[in-house]
Amino acid sequence: MPKPLKTLTRFGYRLATLLMAACVLSGAVLLASPASAAGVLDVTCTPPSSATSTYSPPLTNTPQPSSSTVSFQFGPCVSLSQPALTSGTYTRTNPARPRSCLDLLSSSSGTFTITWNTGQTSTLSVNVTTTIAGAALVVTQTGTVTSGLFTGDTVVITQTGPADDVLLCTAGLGTVSSIYGLVTLEITSV
C-alpha cells in the first residue's frame, strides 16, 4: 500500500512543479507583451473626489434660460510618475442659455483644464455620456489630455450620484437645482 501513495506523492510534486513553472513562464510572457506595456496608469483619483453642478434658476422639463456652475474636486490622487500630485480642481461658470433637465441625459463634448495641487495643469478634451442605472445617475467622460501634464494620455472620469431629482424632473414632477456625485478619474499613458 505505501508504494501507490509514494507514487501519488511523487506525481503530485511533479505536477505542482510543472504548474508553478507554467505560471512563471506565462507571467514572463505577459510582462513582455506589448499589450500590457500599452497602458500605464499615470494618475488615479478616487472618492471622496466629487463633482457638483448647480443651476440657476433650477432646471425644469421645459427649456428656459439657466446658468450653471460646474465644480470638480479631485483627491485623494496617486501618481507614481508625479508623487507630489495628490489633488486637483476644476470650476467653470456657464452663462444662461435655454436648457432643461432633459439636456442632462444627452451626450456632449467639451474641453476643460484641471489645476493640480503642484501648480501644473492638464487640459482634457472629452466626450460625455449620461445614463441612469437603477437609481443612479452615471456621467462618463472619456477622451485625451491635449496639453500640459500627461499630454497624449487617455482619460476616463466617472461621476455617480442619485438620479431622483433628474427622474422626477424629466417626468414633470420636480426641478433640478443641483447634481452631486462621487468621482473617479484615471489618466493612462497610451
UniProtKB/TrEMBL annotation:
Residues 1-37 form the signal peptide. The keyword Signal applies. It comes from the Bacteria. Keywords: Signal. This is Ig-like domain-containing protein. It comes from Streptomyces galbus.
